[in-house]
Design a protein that fits this description.
By secondary structure, the chain is α/β, with parallel strands linked by helices. The protein has 3 domains: about 5-140, no CATH class; about 140-330, Rossmann fold, CATH 3.40.50; about 355-410, Winged helix-like DNA-binding domain superfamily/Winged helix DNA-binding domain (Arc Repressor Mutant, subunit A, Orthogonal Bundle). Helices cover about 45% and strands about 10% of the residues. It contains 18 helices and 13 strands. The chain has helices at about 5-15, 25-40, 45-55, 55-65, 70-75, 85-95, 110-120, 150-155, 165-180, 195-205, 225-235, 250-265, 280-290, 305-315, 325-330, 355-365, 370-380, 385-395; strands spanning about 20, 25, 95-100, 140-145, 155-160, 185-190, 210-215, 240, 265-270, 290-295, 320, 400, 405-410. Strand 5 (about 155-160), helix 9 and strand 6 (about 185-190) form a beta-alpha-beta unit. The protein starts with a helix and ends in a 10-residue tail after the last strand. It comes from Geodermatophilus arenarius.
Length: about 425
């Protein structure tokens, strides 16, 4: 049922500024709340029209039946309904709020790539499928205390297969924890497998993490993760959705939701992905938005890593291989400030030897000591040159003087034999 105050709120919004002290006026917020329930997100044509005329004028035109035909077709019979005030009150009861572009809290910079993609998409006809369109949200329902914009300013998406392996879950949890320890927010979809492992890793590090849902923020989907979602909200994280409170997790909404995960973050890490997967789709959206695409390799025999390896093989994907959080941060962080330390490699006594020293060392027998002249003959050098490098090899415990000649030093004992 329509609240009679809706028209008054819309009228007031037209008469004054869109925001006061960085907070949208009630009429603007209510108009955008109405749009989140009336129109399924992901339509380039609808977003452009709303952006052009403004949310208040758009709502009034849709309710009066004077909106463009394409916009009316997307809304349908929902134009006659109004649950905007009820949605805002329901959100308030569960500790949520509606964040709109007129708010200072709006993540304008992270979502700018979606705005650019929308304006460069011709007339929008080439992206009729909402599940693949790159378009900003008209508003975002947010549950949790921290402001949205600073929470996602330094964020990375960690996504992957629902039917994950123990290897994938271990890697995702490690990435979540290590990214959290470095001050980065992990963003994912809260699903089974890789998603929830990454969220749990961030929680274990005491870091905020963000779940982008395909349903209302007052619903836990999957239901088995309700306790994890509560821990996220109470631990300084956020639940985010384009759909109003009470909205059901319809299948197509998961595909639409993926662009928000890619858009809010600086890059997307795919930990595990089957040949056809939502994680691959998220990665391709990230690449289309100019964001980093990072891939964790897996066993070549694992079906859950086929999608990862395909991304690495595709030149157009621009995917980069990563194996730890430091490499992820180096890829998505500030140039020169977030460099990953080189991987530690095992060191051996032979490391750093000159070519001559290596040749003399290779000439040494294992058991019987031989003279420097004999070593020089085998190594192909002058006896004086062999004599010059032998003391250094002895100090390094590589050769041993037997009293009658030189031989290889025996390996150090690691313990008593049995």
């Amino acid at each position: 049922m329509t609240d009679p105050a809706l028209e008054e709120d819309l009228e007031d919004a037209l008469a004054g500024p869109a925001a006061v002290d960085g907070v949208a006026v009630p009429g603007i917020r209510r108009a955008r709340a109405w749009l989140t329930r009336a129109a399924e997100p992901g339509s380039v044509a609808l977003w452009r029209w709303v952006d052009d005329v403004g949310p208040v004028a758009a709502v009034r035109a849709l309710r009066a039946g004077t909106a463009p035909e394409r916009a009316r077709a997307l809304v349908g019979v929902r134009a006659e309904q109004d649950a905007s005030l009820a949605d805002l009150r329901r959100a308030e009861r569960c500790g949520a709020r509606l964040v709109v572009p007129e708010d200072d809290e709006w993540p304008a910079l992270p979502l700018h790539a979606l705005t650019v993609a929308t304006h460069t998409d011709g007339d929008g006809e080439g992206r009729r499928d909402r599940t693949t369109a790159l378009v900003p949200p008209v508003a975002l329902w947010v549950r949790g205390d921290p402001p949205l914009e600073p929470t996602v300013d330094r964020s990375v998406a960690v996504v992957g297969a629902r039917a994950s392996t123990a290897y994938g879950e271990h890697v995702a949890a490690d990435l979540g924890a290590q990214l959290g320890e470095r001050g980065w927010t992990v963003v994912s979809g809260g699903a089974y497998g890789i998603d929830v492992a990454a969220h749990r890793g961030a929680l274990a590090a005491g870091a905020p993490t963000v779940v982008v849902l395909a349903c209302g923020v007052d619903r836990a989907y999957p239901a088995a993760h309700s306790a994890v979602f509560e821990r996220i909200v109470s631990g300084g994280g956020l639940l985010v959705s384009e759909w109003p409170p009470g909205a059901a997790p319809h299948r197509h909404r998961f595909l639409v939701r993926n662009r928000i995960i890619a858009g809010l973050t600086r890059g997307t890490v795919v930990v595990e992905a089957a040949a056809r997967s939502g994680a691959q789709a998220t990665a391709r959206r990230a690449r289309a938005l100019g964001k980093e695409v990072l891939v964790v390799p897996g066993p070549v025999t694992s079906a859950m890593s086929v999608g990862c390896h395909e991304l690495l093989r595709e030149q157009e994907s621009g995917a980069r291989l990563v194996s730890n959080a430091a490499q992820v941060v180096e890829a998505v962080g500030s140039l020169g400030d977030d460099l990953a330390a080189p991987e530690r490699r095992p060191t051996f006594p032979r490391d750093g030897l000159s070519d001559l020293a290596r040749r003399v060392l290779d000439a040494c027998p294992v058991r019987t000591g031989v003279s420097a002249e004999r070593l020089a003959a085998v190594a192909g050098c002058d006896p004086l040159e062999a004599m010059r490098v032998l003391p250094g090899l002895e100090v390094a415990d590589l050769v041993q003087w037997t009293g009658t000649g030189w031989r290889l030093a025996p390996p150090p004992r690691t313990g008593r034999g049995g």
